[in-house]
Known about the structure:
The strands form seven sheets. Strands 1, 2, 3, 4, 5 and 6 form a six-stranded mixed beta sheet that branches. The protein has a four-stranded antiparallel beta sheet with strand order 9-8-7-30, with no helix packed on it. The protein has helices at residues 7-13, 15-18, 57-73, 146-162; strands at 42-46, 50-53, 77-81, 106-115, 118-127, 133-142, 171-178, 181-188, 195-196, 204-209, 215-220, 227-232, 237-242, 248-253, 259-264, 271-276, 282-284, 292-297, 303-308, 315-320, 327-328, 336-341, 347-354, 357-364, 369-372, 380-385, 391-399, 401-408, 415-416, 423-428. It contains four helices and 30 strands. It folds into two domains: 7-29 and 170-438, Neuraminidase; 35-162, TolB, N-terminal domain (Rossmann fold, 3-Layer(aba) Sandwich). The chain starts with 6 loop residues before the first helix and ends in a 14-residue tail after the last strand.
Amino acid sequence: MFYLPSIKNMGVFSLLFLVSCGQLWSQTDVHLRIEKRAFTRLPVELWPCEITGEATEDDGFKVSSVLESDLWLSSLIAAYPAQSQNLKKNTGMTTTRPAGLQAINVAVKTRLEVDGDTATLALALIDMNTKQITFNKKYAGCRKKVRLLVHVVADAIVKRLTGQEGIARSRIVFSASSFDGKEIYVMDYDGVNLERLTHDKSININPAWMPGGKGVVFTSYKANNPDLYFLDLESRRAGSLLASNHLYSSPAWAPSGSQLAVVSTKDGNAEIYKVDARSRKMRRLTHHVAIDAAPSWSPTGREIIFTSDRLGNPQLFLMDAEGSNVRRLPVGNDYNDSPVWSPKGDKVAFVSRGTGGFDIYVYSFADAQTMQLTSNQGSNEDPFWSPDGYRIVFSSTRDGGRDIYSMMWDGTNVEKLTAKGNCSSPSWSANVRPESDFKCKK
Length: 442
C-alpha cells in the first residue's frame, strides 16, 4: 500500500513518486486579520520609529512595519498605531484599533541609528499610566540586517511582556522542485530572506532541523541512493550521516539532540529506527509486516508518534521511545498520516483524507477531541509546529501550485510564505540564530 498524498511518505513507500513533483489540487485564499482575536492578545501602542544618523525614513518605515507584523505573528500581542496628535505618521502598520478596544497600558518606542555599515536599534517600553520607561536596550548589527534586528526586538518585547519566548528569529526549511530535481531552501519564519541551501541537481527531501538550529538533516539521492545527510548551516557543508544500499527517510530529532528517529528499509520492510547521533548506531523500534513511517518525538523524548497501515488504512500510533507499548491514537477518520507533536505536548497535528481531499487536523490530548483546521482549500499537507506551539506551517495547493503557509493552531490567520508553486515538507526551527547572521559579511 502506498501513501500517495504525502511528500514525506513518498520517500518511504515508493521511490517512483519522488521524481514527480506535480500537484493536482487548487484554490484561492484571502488573508484577513480577524480583529476579534486581538482582544485575547495583550494590546500595545506602537510609536513610529525615530531615525538618527544616516537612517532614512524608509528605514524607519520598515522597522515599524516589520515590528507590527512580528508582534502579531507572536499570537500573544497586538500592536496599534499611536493616537497622540504629535505621533501621527505613516508607520506601514496594517492593524487598526477596533472600536471598544480595552485600555492600552504599554507603549513601544524604537530608535534606529545608522552609521556606515552599522545599525543600532534601541527599544524602550513605556508604562502609559506612569509615563516611566520600564525596559530599554540597544541591539547592534549590520545595516543590511535591520530586519533581523527588528526580529530580535520583537522577541525581547514578547519575553518582557508575556514571559514567553517569541518566534521572530526562527526559520523554516523546506524542499522545492526545480528543473533538475529537488533542493533544500531556508527562509525566515515570515517568508522573507529565501535562500537555497543545496545545489546538488538531485532529489533532496524531508529536511529536519537539529535542536538548536545549527544544522539540518535531509534525505538525498545525490549518491544514487536515498541516504541521510547533515548540513551545517554555519559552514554550509554537507556530509553523509547514514549511507548504504537501503532507504533512509523522514528524520526526526529527539528533543535532546543526541538521537533521531528515521524510517529505513535496512531489514527489508519500512520500519522506524532510533539512531545515535554520535555513533550512528541504529536500533529498530517497530516490528510489523505493515509500513511504519513518519515518526515524531514527544517534547519529553519519552514517546514517539508515527503512521502505520497495520489496520488496513494509515492510522496514527504511539509507542514508548524504546519501541514498546504500541497503541493506536483514536483521532477519527479512515486515513490519517504525517503526525507531528506540538512543543507543549498537548496536541498533535496531522493530515487526514476526507471527501474533499487532504486537510490538516489537530488532536487535543486534554479532551481527546479532533479539530479540522483546513477545508475546501486544495490539498493541505506536511504540518509542522512553530517553536512556541501557537502556529503551524504546512504546504497547500490552495493557490494552484504547492506553497508553504502558516496559520494559528486553530486554523485562523493564514499567512502565505512562498510563491514558488513547488514547495513541500516544511520544518520550523527553534528560535535561535547564529551571531554571524547579524554581522556584515566581509
